[in-house]
Design a protein that fits this description.
mainly beta; 4-stranded antiparallel β-sheet; 7 strands; Class I heat shock protein; cytoplasm; Small_HSP; HSP20-like_chaperone; stress response
Length: 150
Amino acid sequence: MSLIPSVFGRRSSVLDPFSLDLWDPFRDSPVSSSNEASQLAATRIDWKETPEAHVFKADVPGLKKEEVKVEVEEGNVLQISGERTREKEEKNDKWHRVERSSGKFLRRFRLPENAKMDQIKASMENGVLTVTVPKEEVKKPEVKAIQISG
């Protein structure tokens, strides 16, 4: 079974490792998981490391800061979660297309040992959540010269 849809909606016989259209065994079942599962992974997050900190940037367009949670768990785990609620449907409304995602999202990252867990800061601007995790300074080992006798 292939992971690539063909032009006519059938699955192609060629595997494409870069395709995001993965086979969903529950696609046609009444309890399809594809929408909910894709929401968990849909939030795109970049993680970069600078000399001073680990910086996470998450795209959360249309969300207010009250709808996003940034938490730290035991074992240096950073958790970013939130929920985008669906617009309420009115009886007189006629929807032609619904493409914006709604639902919950959750992303977790295990931080390295040098993360200062008590100094994490988060801010949100223009639909981008930025979480900054400062790093402890790496102490360079002190080198002591030893004289050689003889």
